[in-house]
Each structure stands twice: as C-alpha cells, then as structure tokens.
Amino acid sequence: MGSSLRPLILVSAAALASAGCVMVGPDYQEPEPPLETRWIEYEDPGLDSESPLAPEWWRWTLKDPVLDRLVAIALEDSLTLRSAGLRVLQAQQQLAIAVGNQYPQQQDLSGSAGVERANRRTDDVYDFGFNISWEADVWGRFRRQVETASALLDASLASYDGVMVSVIAQVAQTYLSIRTTQRRLEVARYNVSLQAESVRITEAKFESGATSALDVEQARTLLHNTRASVYSLEIGLQQLQNGLAVLLGQQPVDLGELLGQPRPVPEVEPRIAVGMPQELIRRRPDIRVAERRLAAQSAQIGFAITELYPHFLVNGSIGTSVTTLGDEDAGDLFTGDTFRYDLAAGFQWNIFNYGRLRNNVRLQDAIFQQLLEDYRQTVLQVQAEVENAIVAFLESARQLDEFRAAAAAAQRAVDISTLQYEDGLVNFNTVITTLQSLAAQQDQLATAQGSVASNLVEVYRALGGGWDVRSSADPVELLREETRQEMENRTDYWDRQFSDR
Predict the structure, then answer these.
(1) 468-486 burial, b for 16+ CB within 10 Å, e for fewer?
(2) Within 10 A of 417 (CB to CB), how many other CB atoms are there?
(3) Which of 75, 135, 242, 463 is most buried, judged by most C-beta within 10 A?
(4) Per residue in 285-333, pLDDT tens?
C-alpha cells in the first residue's frame, strides 16, 4: 500500500478508536415525583392501604362471571387495543432503525455496462464495485438517538397499558350501567303495576259515587308517565348494549346471548385494597408515559449538542472496471490489473452556524423542562383522581344505606295511604304523592346501587389496575395471530420477526 494512503488510514483508525468513547450532553436522571405518603382517607375503615392491588381486580371485587367473560373478549378483540399494540410495534421498528444508524450509514453495490463513442472509436465500458460511508459516533450522536427511540418504545408500551386499563374499566362501567338500567326497568314496571291498581281503585270508587272523576284522571296521568319512562329506559339499555359491542370489537348486535338473563347489580365489599400512593409511579401508565417521554427528550438535548462538534466521516470503495480500446481487449473485469480501491477520511464542522445550533440546544432543553413540569402535573392529577374516586366510593356506599331505608319507608307509605284511601280516611292527593315518591325512591335506589359499583371501578381505573395482566413486553406478542397473518400476507418482510416468536 502506498505511503500516500497512510495519513488517511491513521485518521480513519483514530475515528474508529474514538467512536463510542464520549457522550456529550446531560445524562438522564429520573425525577423525584411529588407524591404524598398516604391517602386523605387513610383512617377510614373501608380503605386498606396495606394490601396490594389485585391485577385482575374485577374478578375479586365484582365476582360476576358474565363480566369476567366480557373483559376476556375485550382484551382479545378490542380494536382500540389492537391499534395500541401496533403503535408499540412501530416504536420497536423505530428503535431498530436508530440502532442501525450506528453502523455504516451507506452501503451499496453498483455495476454498469456501457458504450462510449469518440474520435471514430467505440469503446465498451464495464464497472463493478462496492461503496461504503460511515460517520463515526465520536460524540454519542447516534447513541443519543438510540436512547430516544428506546425511551419512546417504553412510552409506547406504557400507552398500551393505559389503553388496556381504560378498556377494562369501560367494559366494566358499561356492563354495570346495563345491569343498573335493567334494575331500573324492573322497578319502573313494578310501579306501573302499582299505579294500574290505583287506577282500578279510583275507577271503582268513581263508579260507586264515592269520589269524583278528578281522582281517576290523576291516577291515569301518573300511570301513563311511568309507562313512558319505561320506553326511555329501554332506549338507553339498547344504546348501552351497542356501546358494549363496540368495546368488544363487535358490530352492534343483540348481546342477549352473551349477557344472559337480567342480573342484579353486583354487590361489592365495603372495604377496598388500594395500596400506597408511592405505587402509583409503577401502576399508572400515564405517569410512566410522561416519565419515558421526558427521558427521550433528555437524549435529544445531547443529540443537539453533538451538532456543535465536528462529524468524522470515513468513505471507501472497492471495485473493478474495464474499458476496451476500440477492438482491442483490455483484459478481464475480475483480474488484478483492473482492480481499484479508495479510502478517505475527513470531517465536517458547522462552525458558521453556531448561533442556530446553540439556539437548538436551548430549544431542546426548554422542551425538556416543559415535559418535566407536565410530568409533575400528571402526578398531581393522578393523585387527585384517586382521592376523588376513593371518597366517591366510600361515601356512595354509606349513601346507599340511606336510600335503602328511604325506599322501604316509601313502600310502607304507599301501602298505608292506599288502605286509608279505600276506607275514605285520606284524599287521593295523598296516594298520588306516595306513589310518586315510591317510584322516585326505588329508581334512585337502583341508580345508587349501580353508582357504588361504578365508583369502585373508577377507583381501580384511577389506580391503574389491570395493566399488569399483560404477559409480555414483546410487541409481536401483543398482536393477534390473525393480525400477524394479515401483515405477513401483505409483505414478506415480517416472516423472520414473526416466526422467531
């Protein structure tokens, strides 16, 4: 090798040796979250801060096999969850691209064959070669990109967990709303029967001359209004079932076979296990998303700083070429005489754009600080959500006892007023009032029963309950087999990645 190449070889060797030795920019440190050490209602006997949160909380708290089946279907077929899984897969491919950028960025094989005509002579030209270009990662430029992509992959996976928590909670909430509406329908139909009997009594008393037609019309008015409320509840029930079908990844169809016969709203225990506030950092997906995006932006600061330093480049090629001289044979394309190569090393330095580059560093740092404040705000909002859900559950459970007592009293009032009206001891306005009160109290009781269970679901949603039912962090494992097959049929480039799982 000629002595003229030695400086280039030395420069190339120095660039290669220094690659990976320096990482400019700040190294990320996870921020200290502004978390309280205990819940506001920590002294309430209904709150258990010591026991850990059960992963499949709906199984142990609501104990409804129909709901268990619905959640299992949603986790398998929810289109929203499938979309989130594909976003994780996209983030994984972005990370793979970032890792690949650490290696020679340009590698290509080229060849050509042509004819040249000059000075009444025709020459054949043949060329074949391999070219390579590489920017050495001296300052950690590409490693910072890998850090960013890795953190964004983690954020994407946490987002998937957030979607899963949301889907589970939405299925449970919708199911409870269906059972609550069914109970309200049952109550409304019961009151229709009571009010129909009241109409019969007033008609009988009117025919006997014991009362006026006013009592009959008042009784009929109340009856027709209550019957009308039944239709409204039936509309709402069908709309809830349609919403549940969409959550399950199904077309809006009759879910009667899946839901079975109307069932009572699940009873819940008055005591709930919520763990400690410090566990929110691990459990709440949106907190993990905010923290991972913060880590990704920290790496972007380092990447921006690398622009202030020179970029060391190594370029090279190896190949062979032949040009005939008219009718003369210039030799075989693949012989030592036609062999050629070149190697070059150099650098690029944006020394005249330092103002722009420094401003970009400041920009990336300002974005990082904004994301840090967003992270702190997220932690505060999460704690507020949990505290709101806890107090709503505890107080609604106590409220339910009062509604039960009120409904029982309203039933007794109807029984008493009806007997007294038949005996002529009270006028019909008293009966109407008690019938109206009973219908309202029983409907309120049914709604309150659903609210207690719904508030429990909200507690576990706010706590991030359900995210850890995911069995794998591999994006491929988050995809259904049919999805993988569909992607494999569209392009052959997934075969290896999918078959390795």
Answers:
(1) beeeeeebbebbeeeebee
(2) 24
(3) 463
(4) 999 999 999 999 999 999 999 999 998 888 888 877 777 765 555 556 6
pLDDT in tens, 234-247: 999 999 999 999 99
Rg (CA), the chain: 37
Report DSSP state, residue 451: H
Q: Are 89 and 475 in contact (CB under 8 A)?
A: yes
Provide DSSP, 385-424: HHHHHHHHHHHHHHHHHHHHHHHHHHHHHHHHHHHHHHTT
Q: If DSSP codes are grouped into helix, strand and coil, which group holds residue 110?
A: strand
Q: Is there a contact between 400 and 449 (Cβ–Cβ < 8 Å)?
A: yes
Which helix (DSSP H) or strand (DSSP E) does residue 442 occupy?
helix 428-462
How far apart CA 87 and CA 92 sit, in angstroms, is 9
User: Side by side, which strands form the sheet with 339-348?
Assistant: 106-118, 121-135, 311-323, 339-348
In Å, what is the CA distance from 48 to each residue of 41, 128, 144, 274? Answer: 10, 75, 43, 6
* The two structure tokens encoding residue 351: 């020394």
Structure tokens at 50: 């010591």
Secondary structure letter of residue 2 according to DSSP: -
What CA–CA distance (Å, rounded) separates 172 from 382? 20
What residues contact 59, with CB distance under 8 A and at least 6 apart? 68
Tell me, what DSSP letter sits at residue 307?
A: T
Q: How far is CA 49 from the centre of its chain?
A: 26
pTM: 0.86
Distance separating alpha carbons of residues 112 and 121, to the nearest angstrom: 20
Count how many Cα atoms sit within 13 Å of the Cα of residue 121 in the half-sphere of its side chain. Answer: 10
Q: Is 500 helix (H, G, I), strand (E, B) or coil?
A: coil
